[in-house]
Design brief:
The chain contains twelve helices and 14 strands. It is α/β, with parallel strands linked by helices. It has a single domain, classed as Alkaline Phosphatase, subunit A (3-Layer(aba) Sandwich), CATH 3.40.720.10. It has an eight-stranded mixed β-sheet with strand order 5-4-6-1-7-8-2-9, sandwiched between helices. A hairpin with a 2-residue loop joins β11 and β12.
Length: 510
Protein backbone atom coordinates (compact mmCIF):
# COMPACT_ATOMS: atom_id res chain seq x y z
CA UNK A 1 0.00 0.00 0.00
CA UNK A 2 2.79 2.39 0.89
CA UNK A 3 4.54 1.72 -2.45
CA UNK A 4 1.26 2.33 -4.28
CA UNK A 5 0.73 5.60 -2.43
CA UNK A 6 4.31 6.67 -3.12
CA UNK A 7 3.91 5.82 -6.80
CA UNK A 8 0.64 7.79 -6.94
CA UNK A 9 2.26 10.84 -5.33
CA UNK A 10 5.24 10.57 -7.66
CA UNK A 11 2.96 10.59 -10.70
CA UNK A 12 1.13 13.57 -9.22
CA UNK A 13 4.49 15.33 -8.89
CA UNK A 14 5.30 14.67 -12.54
CA UNK A 15 1.83 15.84 -13.57
CA UNK A 16 2.34 19.04 -11.59
CA UNK A 17 5.66 19.65 -13.34
CA UNK A 18 4.14 19.08 -16.77
CA UNK A 19 1.28 21.44 -15.93
CA UNK A 20 3.76 24.13 -14.87
CA UNK A 21 5.76 23.71 -18.06
CA UNK A 22 2.60 23.73 -20.17
CA UNK A 23 1.45 26.91 -18.42
CA UNK A 24 4.72 28.60 -19.35
CA UNK A 25 4.50 27.31 -22.90
CA UNK A 26 0.95 28.57 -23.37
CA UNK A 27 2.10 32.08 -22.52
CA UNK A 28 5.07 32.18 -24.85
CA UNK A 29 4.71 34.23 -28.01
CA UNK A 30 7.24 34.46 -30.80
CA UNK A 31 10.79 35.57 -30.10
CA UNK A 32 14.11 35.44 -31.87
CA UNK A 33 16.44 32.45 -32.01
CA UNK A 34 18.87 34.41 -29.86
CA UNK A 35 16.36 34.34 -27.01
CA UNK A 36 15.66 30.61 -26.60
CA UNK A 37 13.86 28.67 -23.93
CA UNK A 38 16.43 27.00 -21.71
CA UNK A 39 15.90 23.58 -20.12
CA UNK A 40 18.73 22.43 -17.83
CA UNK A 41 18.55 18.83 -16.62
CA UNK A 42 20.96 18.03 -13.77
CA UNK A 43 21.31 14.50 -12.43
CA UNK A 44 22.74 13.81 -8.98
CA UNK A 45 25.73 11.46 -8.64
CA UNK A 46 25.24 10.01 -12.12
CA UNK A 47 28.35 8.39 -13.56
CA UNK A 48 29.51 9.17 -17.08
CA UNK A 49 29.60 5.42 -17.67
CA UNK A 50 25.91 4.99 -16.84
CA UNK A 51 24.63 6.26 -20.21
CA UNK A 52 24.45 4.49 -23.53
CA UNK A 53 25.77 7.52 -25.40
CA UNK A 54 28.95 7.30 -23.29
CA UNK A 55 29.43 3.59 -23.85
CA UNK A 56 27.15 1.77 -21.42
CA UNK A 57 25.81 -1.42 -23.00
CA UNK A 58 23.50 -2.68 -20.25
CA UNK A 59 21.47 0.26 -18.94
CA UNK A 60 18.63 1.55 -21.12
CA UNK A 61 18.83 5.33 -21.56
CA UNK A 62 17.23 5.94 -24.98
CA UNK A 63 15.90 9.42 -24.20
CA UNK A 64 19.17 10.80 -22.87
CA UNK A 65 20.94 9.09 -25.78
CA UNK A 66 18.51 10.92 -28.06
CA UNK A 67 19.94 14.22 -26.82
CA UNK A 68 23.37 13.03 -27.92
CA UNK A 69 22.09 11.87 -31.31
CA UNK A 70 20.27 15.15 -31.94
CA UNK A 71 22.89 17.43 -30.41
CA UNK A 72 26.47 17.74 -29.22
CA UNK A 73 28.29 15.35 -26.90
CA UNK A 74 31.00 16.88 -24.73
CA UNK A 75 33.55 14.15 -24.04
CA UNK A 76 35.66 16.09 -21.56
CA UNK A 77 32.94 17.93 -19.65
CA UNK A 78 33.97 18.68 -16.08
CA UNK A 79 32.20 19.50 -12.85
CA UNK A 80 33.83 22.40 -11.03
CA UNK A 81 33.83 20.29 -7.87
CA UNK A 82 33.37 16.59 -7.06
CA UNK A 83 30.76 17.40 -4.38
CA UNK A 84 27.13 18.58 -4.65
CA UNK A 85 27.07 21.95 -2.91
CA UNK A 86 30.19 23.56 -4.45
CA UNK A 87 29.52 22.06 -7.88
CA UNK A 88 25.99 23.48 -7.95
CA UNK A 89 27.20 26.88 -6.75
CA UNK A 90 29.71 26.98 -9.61
CA UNK A 91 27.06 25.89 -12.12
CA UNK A 92 24.67 28.69 -11.15
CA UNK A 93 27.30 31.46 -10.96
CA UNK A 94 29.91 30.45 -13.57
CA UNK A 95 32.58 30.85 -10.87
CA UNK A 96 34.85 28.54 -8.93
CA UNK A 97 33.12 27.88 -5.59
CA UNK A 98 36.15 29.20 -3.71
CA UNK A 99 35.23 32.69 -5.02
CA UNK A 100 31.80 32.65 -3.35
CA UNK A 101 32.80 31.00 -0.08
CA UNK A 102 31.09 27.77 -1.15
CA UNK A 103 34.20 25.62 -0.70
CA UNK A 104 34.89 24.24 2.77
CA UNK A 105 38.05 24.48 4.82
CA UNK A 106 36.45 22.07 7.30
CA UNK A 107 35.98 18.34 6.96
CA UNK A 108 32.37 18.63 5.73
CA UNK A 109 32.10 20.00 2.19
CA UNK A 110 28.30 20.14 1.78
CA UNK A 111 25.27 21.33 3.71
CA UNK A 112 23.76 18.59 5.84
CA UNK A 113 20.77 20.40 7.34
CA UNK A 114 18.07 22.72 6.12
CA UNK A 115 18.53 24.49 9.46
CA UNK A 116 22.08 25.65 8.73
CA UNK A 117 22.84 29.33 8.25
CA UNK A 118 25.28 29.04 5.34
CA UNK A 119 24.36 29.21 1.69
CA UNK A 120 24.91 30.84 -1.66
CA UNK A 121 25.51 34.51 -0.76
CA UNK A 122 22.91 37.02 -1.88
CA UNK A 123 25.58 39.11 -3.62
CA UNK A 124 26.35 36.25 -6.01
CA UNK A 125 24.77 36.66 -9.45
CA UNK A 126 23.11 33.54 -10.81
CA UNK A 127 22.07 32.96 -14.41
CA UNK A 128 18.48 32.76 -13.14
CA UNK A 129 18.71 36.35 -11.83
CA UNK A 130 20.01 37.64 -15.14
CA UNK A 131 17.47 35.74 -17.25
CA UNK A 132 14.65 36.90 -15.01
CA UNK A 133 15.78 40.48 -15.59
CA UNK A 134 15.51 39.80 -19.31
CA UNK A 135 11.88 38.76 -18.90
CA UNK A 136 12.31 35.00 -18.63
CA UNK A 137 9.89 32.97 -16.53
CA UNK A 138 12.19 30.96 -14.26
CA UNK A 139 11.57 27.74 -12.31
CA UNK A 140 13.62 25.24 -10.34
CA UNK A 141 12.18 21.78 -9.72
CA UNK A 142 14.00 19.34 -7.44
CA UNK A 143 17.20 19.62 -5.46
CA UNK A 144 18.73 22.95 -4.35
CA UNK A 145 21.38 22.16 -1.68
CA UNK A 146 22.65 25.75 -1.52
CA UNK A 147 21.18 26.92 1.78
CA UNK A 148 17.88 28.18 3.10
CA UNK A 149 17.84 30.83 5.85
CA UNK A 150 20.33 33.14 7.57
CA UNK A 151 18.95 34.39 10.89
CA UNK A 152 15.35 33.22 11.14
CA UNK A 153 13.35 30.31 9.79
CA UNK A 154 11.51 32.53 7.32
CA UNK A 155 14.05 35.03 5.97
CA UNK A 156 14.79 32.73 2.98
CA UNK A 157 18.04 34.59 2.26
CA UNK A 158 19.55 31.58 0.46
CA UNK A 159 16.31 30.21 -0.97
CA UNK A 160 15.95 29.71 -4.76
CA UNK A 161 13.33 32.46 -4.82
CA UNK A 162 16.02 34.84 -3.57
CA UNK A 163 18.33 33.82 -6.40
CA UNK A 164 16.20 34.59 -9.43
CA UNK A 165 13.69 31.75 -9.57
CA UNK A 166 10.00 32.68 -9.82
CA UNK A 167 8.97 29.19 -8.78
CA UNK A 168 10.52 26.42 -6.70
CA UNK A 169 9.18 22.97 -5.85
CA UNK A 170 11.58 20.51 -4.28
CA UNK A 171 14.17 20.00 -1.56
CA UNK A 172 16.42 22.67 -0.09
CA UNK A 173 19.02 20.08 0.93
CA UNK A 174 19.24 16.55 -0.45
CA UNK A 175 17.88 13.10 0.40
CA UNK A 176 18.00 13.77 4.15
CA UNK A 177 15.12 13.48 6.57
CA UNK A 178 15.43 16.44 8.91
CA UNK A 179 12.51 18.62 7.87
CA UNK A 180 8.77 18.78 7.58
CA UNK A 181 7.63 21.76 5.47
CA UNK A 182 4.81 23.87 6.79
CA UNK A 183 1.73 23.27 4.64
CA UNK A 184 3.74 23.87 1.48
CA UNK A 185 3.96 27.62 2.02
CA UNK A 186 7.74 27.69 1.78
CA UNK A 187 8.09 25.47 -1.25
CA UNK A 188 5.08 26.64 -3.21
CA UNK A 189 5.78 30.37 -3.16
CA UNK A 190 5.87 32.22 -6.45
CA UNK A 191 4.00 29.93 -8.91
CA UNK A 192 4.51 31.11 -12.52
CA UNK A 193 1.70 33.45 -13.66
CA UNK A 194 0.94 34.89 -17.08
CA UNK A 195 4.38 35.56 -18.57
CA UNK A 196 4.63 36.79 -22.11
CA UNK A 197 8.19 35.51 -22.17
CA UNK A 198 10.51 32.59 -22.84
CA UNK A 199 11.25 30.31 -19.92
CA UNK A 200 14.18 28.89 -17.98
CA UNK A 201 13.54 25.52 -16.36
CA UNK A 202 16.14 23.85 -14.14
CA UNK A 203 15.09 20.30 -13.38
CA UNK A 204 17.50 19.20 -10.66
CA UNK A 205 16.91 15.49 -10.18
CA UNK A 206 17.20 13.67 -6.88
CA UNK A 207 18.00 10.62 -8.99
CA UNK A 208 20.41 8.91 -8.48
CA UNK A 209 21.59 10.13 -5.09
CA UNK A 210 20.95 7.76 -2.22
CA UNK A 211 18.53 6.99 -0.74
CA UNK A 212 17.64 5.40 -4.05
CA UNK A 213 14.06 5.25 -5.22
CA UNK A 214 12.28 3.76 -8.21
CA UNK A 215 8.53 3.57 -8.68
CA UNK A 216 6.66 0.34 -9.38
CA UNK A 217 6.85 0.74 -13.16
CA UNK A 218 10.67 0.67 -13.02
CA UNK A 219 11.58 -1.25 -9.85
CA UNK A 220 13.34 -4.51 -10.60
CA UNK A 221 13.37 -3.89 -14.35
CA UNK A 222 17.04 -2.99 -14.95
CA UNK A 223 20.11 -5.21 -14.93
CA UNK A 224 21.82 -3.15 -12.21
CA UNK A 225 19.57 -3.36 -9.18
CA UNK A 226 17.87 -0.37 -7.62
CA UNK A 227 20.52 2.02 -8.94
CA UNK A 228 19.89 0.92 -12.51
CA UNK A 229 16.13 1.14 -11.97
CA UNK A 230 16.55 4.76 -10.84
CA UNK A 231 18.71 5.61 -13.88
CA UNK A 232 16.15 4.17 -16.26
CA UNK A 233 13.31 6.02 -14.51
CA UNK A 234 15.20 9.29 -14.82
CA UNK A 235 15.71 8.59 -18.52
CA UNK A 236 11.96 8.10 -18.90
CA UNK A 237 11.44 11.49 -17.25
CA UNK A 238 13.80 13.15 -19.73
CA UNK A 239 11.71 11.64 -22.50
CA UNK A 240 8.55 13.15 -21.04
CA UNK A 241 10.14 16.61 -21.13
CA UNK A 242 11.35 16.21 -24.71
CA UNK A 243 7.87 15.06 -25.73
CA UNK A 244 6.26 18.17 -24.23
CA UNK A 245 8.67 20.42 -26.14
CA UNK A 246 7.97 18.52 -29.34
CA UNK A 247 4.20 18.47 -28.89
CA UNK A 248 4.15 22.25 -28.58
CA UNK A 249 6.58 22.79 -31.46
CA UNK A 250 9.19 24.25 -29.14
CA UNK A 251 12.11 21.93 -29.80
CA UNK A 252 13.67 24.30 -32.33
CA UNK A 253 13.28 27.21 -29.92
CA UNK A 254 14.77 25.46 -26.90
CA UNK A 255 18.31 24.76 -25.74
CA UNK A 256 18.34 21.56 -23.69
CA UNK A 257 21.34 20.62 -21.53
CA UNK A 258 21.87 17.39 -19.60
CA UNK A 259 24.65 16.74 -17.09
CA UNK A 260 25.44 15.51 -13.58
CA UNK A 261 26.68 17.51 -10.61
CA UNK A 262 29.66 15.16 -10.22
CA UNK A 263 30.70 11.60 -10.89
CA UNK A 264 29.15 8.47 -9.44
CA UNK A 265 29.60 7.60 -5.77
CA UNK A 266 31.34 4.30 -6.36
CA UNK A 267 31.72 3.49 -2.64
CA UNK A 268 28.00 3.66 -1.91
CA UNK A 269 26.93 0.26 -0.55
CA UNK A 270 23.56 -0.47 1.06
CA UNK A 271 23.21 -2.14 4.48
CA UNK A 272 22.42 -5.38 2.66
CA UNK A 273 25.58 -5.17 0.57
CA UNK A 274 23.96 -4.04 -2.68
CA UNK A 275 25.95 -1.57 -4.78
CA UNK A 276 24.06 1.73 -4.79
CA UNK A 277 26.60 3.69 -6.79
CA UNK A 278 27.07 4.05 -10.51
CA UNK A 279 29.73 3.61 -13.15
CA UNK A 280 32.38 6.13 -14.17
CA UNK A 281 33.48 4.14 -17.18
CA UNK A 282 37.21 3.85 -17.66
CA UNK A 283 37.89 6.76 -15.33
CA UNK A 284 39.55 6.43 -11.95
CA UNK A 285 37.86 7.37 -8.69
CA UNK A 286 34.45 8.87 -8.08
CA UNK A 287 32.44 11.39 -6.11
CA UNK A 288 34.52 13.58 -3.73
CA UNK A 289 37.77 13.01 -5.66
CA UNK A 290 39.36 14.96 -8.49
CA UNK A 291 40.39 11.84 -10.31
CA UNK A 292 38.58 11.88 -13.65
CA UNK A 293 35.82 9.62 -12.32
CA UNK A 294 34.84 12.26 -9.80
CA UNK A 295 34.64 15.26 -12.13
CA UNK A 296 34.26 14.07 -15.75
CA UNK A 297 30.50 14.10 -16.24
CA UNK A 298 27.99 13.78 -19.09
CA UNK A 299 27.61 16.93 -21.14
CA UNK A 300 24.86 16.90 -23.77
CA UNK A 301 23.35 19.94 -25.51
CA UNK A 302 20.58 20.00 -28.09
CA UNK A 303 19.13 22.89 -30.07
CA UNK A 304 17.82 21.67 -33.44
CA UNK A 305 18.66 23.93 -36.33
CA UNK A 306 21.27 25.81 -34.32
CA UNK A 307 23.58 23.07 -33.05
CA UNK A 308 24.61 20.37 -35.52
CA UNK A 309 23.31 16.96 -34.54
CA UNK A 310 25.57 14.02 -33.76
CA UNK A 311 28.76 16.02 -33.18
CA UNK A 312 31.43 15.70 -30.52
CA UNK A 313 33.58 18.22 -28.69
CA UNK A 314 36.72 16.68 -27.20
CA UNK A 315 38.25 19.80 -25.64
CA UNK A 316 37.91 20.49 -21.89
CA UNK A 317 34.65 22.23 -20.94
CA UNK A 318 33.13 22.99 -17.55
CA UNK A 319 29.69 23.13 -15.97
CA UNK A 320 30.62 26.77 -15.23
CA UNK A 321 30.33 27.40 -18.99
CA UNK A 322 26.53 27.19 -18.90
CA UNK A 323 26.36 30.55 -17.10
CA UNK A 324 27.95 32.72 -19.83
CA UNK A 325 26.40 30.62 -22.59
CA UNK A 326 22.77 31.14 -21.65
CA UNK A 327 23.30 34.68 -20.32
CA UNK A 328 24.62 35.76 -23.73
CA UNK A 329 21.84 33.91 -25.56
CA UNK A 330 19.29 35.76 -23.46
CA UNK A 331 20.83 39.09 -24.41
CA UNK A 332 21.94 39.87 -20.85
CA UNK A 333 25.25 41.43 -19.89
CA UNK A 334 27.86 39.38 -18.08
CA UNK A 335 28.76 40.89 -14.70
CA UNK A 336 31.70 43.27 -15.03
CA UNK A 337 32.51 43.55 -11.31
CA UNK A 338 33.68 39.97 -10.78
CA UNK A 339 35.61 37.20 -12.46
CA UNK A 340 33.50 34.73 -14.44
CA UNK A 341 35.47 31.50 -14.86
CA UNK A 342 33.17 29.88 -17.42
CA UNK A 343 33.29 30.56 -21.16
CA UNK A 344 30.56 30.80 -23.79
CA UNK A 345 30.11 27.37 -25.37
CA UNK A 346 28.25 28.44 -28.51
CA UNK A 347 31.31 28.95 -30.74
CA UNK A 348 32.44 25.40 -29.88
CA UNK A 349 28.98 23.91 -30.23
CA UNK A 350 28.46 25.49 -33.64
CA UNK A 351 31.92 24.55 -34.91
CA UNK A 352 33.05 28.17 -35.31
CA UNK A 353 36.13 27.43 -33.21
CA UNK A 354 37.89 24.15 -32.58
CA UNK A 355 39.56 24.90 -29.26
CA UNK A 356 38.10 25.56 -25.85
CA UNK A 357 39.04 28.80 -24.12
CA UNK A 358 39.93 26.77 -21.04
CA UNK A 359 43.70 26.59 -21.29
CA UNK A 360 43.81 25.90 -17.53
CA UNK A 361 41.20 24.43 -15.21
CA UNK A 362 41.70 24.33 -11.45
CA UNK A 363 40.35 21.40 -9.47
CA UNK A 364 39.61 21.99 -5.79
CA UNK A 365 39.14 19.41 -3.07
CA UNK A 366 36.87 21.52 -0.87
CA UNK A 367 38.84 24.78 -0.45
CA UNK A 368 42.22 23.22 -1.22
CA UNK A 369 43.72 23.36 -4.71
CA UNK A 370 44.14 19.71 -5.50
CA UNK A 371 44.93 19.46 -9.21
CA UNK A 372 45.33 21.54 -12.37
CA UNK A 373 44.58 20.72 -16.00
CA UNK A 374 46.53 22.40 -18.82
CA UNK A 375 45.54 22.11 -22.47
CA UNK A 376 48.18 24.03 -24.46
CA UNK A 377 46.91 25.82 -27.52
CA UNK A 378 49.53 24.23 -29.78
CA UNK A 379 49.22 20.66 -28.53
CA UNK A 380 46.77 17.79 -28.30
CA UNK A 381 48.08 16.90 -24.85
CA UNK A 382 45.98 17.56 -21.77
CA UNK A 383 48.35 17.71 -18.82
CA UNK A 384 47.02 17.16 -15.33
CA UNK A 385 49.00 17.53 -12.12
CA UNK A 386 48.04 16.49 -8.59
CA UNK A 387 49.57 18.31 -5.65
CA UNK A 388 47.99 15.79 -3.29
CA UNK A 389 45.71 12.80 -3.61
CA UNK A 390 43.21 11.24 -1.20
CA UNK A 391 44.03 7.97 0.51
CA UNK A 392 41.31 5.69 -0.72
CA UNK A 393 42.74 2.19 -0.63
CA UNK A 394 40.47 -0.34 1.13
CA UNK A 395 43.13 -1.38 3.63
CA UNK A 396 43.67 2.22 4.78
CA UNK A 397 41.45 2.89 7.80
CA UNK A 398 41.58 6.63 7.09
CA UNK A 399 40.72 6.18 3.43
CA UNK A 400 37.54 6.83 1.52
CA UNK A 401 36.38 3.24 1.58
CA UNK A 402 36.12 3.43 5.36
CA UNK A 403 34.46 6.83 5.57
CA UNK A 404 32.46 6.65 2.28
CA UNK A 405 33.78 10.06 1.25
CA UNK A 406 37.27 11.41 0.64
CA UNK A 407 38.62 14.26 2.76
CA UNK A 408 41.08 16.91 1.75
CA UNK A 409 43.66 17.47 4.46
CA UNK A 410 45.85 15.95 7.16
CA UNK A 411 46.15 12.19 7.36
CA UNK A 412 43.43 11.71 4.76
CA UNK A 413 45.72 12.77 1.89
CA UNK A 414 49.20 12.20 0.50
CA UNK A 415 51.21 15.21 -0.70
CA UNK A 416 53.37 14.79 -3.80
CA UNK A 417 56.68 16.57 -4.37
CA UNK A 418 57.11 16.81 -7.26
CA UNK A 419 53.42 16.68 -8.17
CA UNK A 420 52.01 13.70 -10.01
CA UNK A 421 51.83 14.40 -13.74
CA UNK A 422 49.58 12.70 -16.29
CA UNK A 423 48.87 13.28 -19.98
CA UNK A 424 45.15 12.55 -20.24
CA UNK A 425 45.34 12.41 -24.03
CA UNK A 426 47.47 9.28 -23.70
CA UNK A 427 46.44 8.04 -20.25
CA UNK A 428 42.81 9.04 -19.54
CA UNK A 429 42.63 6.37 -16.84
CA UNK A 430 45.41 8.13 -14.87
CA UNK A 431 47.23 4.85 -14.40
CA UNK A 432 50.91 5.76 -14.76
CA UNK A 433 52.32 9.10 -13.51
CA UNK A 434 54.97 10.57 -15.78
CA UNK A 435 58.51 11.15 -14.57
CA UNK A 436 61.48 13.21 -15.82
CA UNK A 437 62.69 10.00 -17.44
CA UNK A 438 59.43 9.27 -19.30
CA UNK A 439 58.56 12.89 -20.17
CA UNK A 440 61.40 15.16 -21.28
CA UNK A 441 59.32 18.32 -20.67
CA UNK A 442 58.43 17.24 -17.11
CA UNK A 443 59.86 20.24 -15.25
CA UNK A 444 58.89 22.70 -17.98
CA UNK A 445 55.26 21.56 -17.75
CA UNK A 446 55.28 21.86 -13.96
CA UNK A 447 56.78 25.35 -14.24
CA UNK A 448 54.06 26.56 -16.63
CA UNK A 449 51.32 25.13 -14.42
CA UNK A 450 52.83 26.69 -11.31
CA UNK A 451 52.78 30.13 -12.94
CA UNK A 452 49.11 29.59 -13.80
CA UNK A 453 48.44 28.60 -10.18
CA UNK A 454 50.15 31.76 -8.94
CA UNK A 455 48.06 33.94 -11.26
CA UNK A 456 44.87 32.15 -10.26
CA UNK A 457 45.67 32.44 -6.55
CA UNK A 458 46.27 36.19 -6.89
CA UNK A 459 42.80 36.54 -8.44
CA UNK A 460 41.08 35.18 -5.32
CA UNK A 461 39.56 37.51 -2.76
CA UNK A 462 38.78 36.83 0.88
CA UNK A 463 35.10 36.02 1.28
CA UNK A 464 32.93 34.70 4.06
CA UNK A 465 33.23 30.93 4.52
CA UNK A 466 29.70 29.65 3.98
CA UNK A 467 30.71 26.11 4.99
CA UNK A 468 32.43 26.99 8.25
CA UNK A 469 31.44 24.92 11.29
CA UNK A 470 29.37 27.83 12.53
CA UNK A 471 27.44 27.97 9.27
CA UNK A 472 27.14 24.19 8.96
CA UNK A 473 25.88 23.38 12.44
CA UNK A 474 22.19 22.65 12.95
CA UNK A 475 20.41 25.67 14.48
CA UNK A 476 17.04 24.96 16.10
CA UNK A 477 15.70 28.48 15.44
CA UNK A 478 16.23 27.92 11.69
CA UNK A 479 14.41 24.59 11.61
CA UNK A 480 11.14 24.43 9.71
CA UNK A 481 9.34 22.62 12.51
CA UNK A 482 6.08 20.79 12.68
CA UNK A 483 5.59 21.81 16.31
CA UNK A 484 6.89 24.46 18.68
CA UNK A 485 9.13 21.88 20.34
CA UNK A 486 11.99 21.54 17.94
CA UNK A 487 13.36 18.42 19.58
CA UNK A 488 10.22 16.58 18.53
CA UNK A 489 10.32 17.51 14.85
CA UNK A 490 9.54 14.71 12.50
CA UNK A 491 8.52 14.09 8.91
CA UNK A 492 4.89 13.24 8.27
CA UNK A 493 5.02 10.44 5.72
CA UNK A 494 1.24 9.88 5.70
CA UNK A 495 0.00 13.31 4.67
CA UNK A 496 -1.25 13.15 1.09
CA UNK A 497 -1.51 16.93 0.82
CA UNK A 498 1.85 18.01 2.23
CA UNK A 499 5.30 17.97 0.69
CA UNK A 500 6.75 15.80 3.44
CA UNK A 501 7.47 13.04 0.95
CA UNK A 502 9.54 15.49 -1.02
CA UNK A 503 11.36 16.82 2.04
CA UNK A 504 12.12 13.33 3.30
CA UNK A 505 13.51 12.15 0.00
CA UNK A 506 10.93 9.39 -0.36
CA UNK A 507 9.19 10.99 -3.31
CA UNK A 508 10.95 12.14 -6.46
CA UNK A 509 9.69 14.99 -8.63
CA UNK A 510 10.76 13.63 -11.99
Amino acid sequence: MKQAAASKRKKMGLLLFLMILQCAINNVNTYSVSNPNVVLLIADDLGIGDLGCYGNKTLRTPNIDRLAKEGVTLTQHLAASPLCTPSRAAFLTGRYPIRSGMAAFSRVGVFLFSASSGGLPSEEITFSKLLKQRGYATALIGKWHLGMNCESNNDFCHHPLSHGFDYFYGLTVTNLRDCKPGQGSVFLKGVQRNHNAPFLLVLSYLHVHTALYASKMFRGKSRHGLYGDAVEEMDWSVGQILDVLENYNLSNRSLVYFSSDQGAHIEEISSSGEVHGGCNGIYKGGKSTNWEGGIRVPGLLRWPGVIQAGTYVDDPTSNMDIFPTIVKLAGAQLPYDRIIDGHDLMPLLQGKVMRSKHEFLFHYCNAYLNAVRWHPGNSESVWKVFFFTPNFTPEDSNGCYDSHVCFCYGGFITHHDPPLLFDLSRDPEEKVPLTPETETRFYEILSVIQRAVDNHTRSLQVVSDQLSWNNLVWKPWLQLCCSSFFQFCYCDYDSENSLSEVASGRSFLC
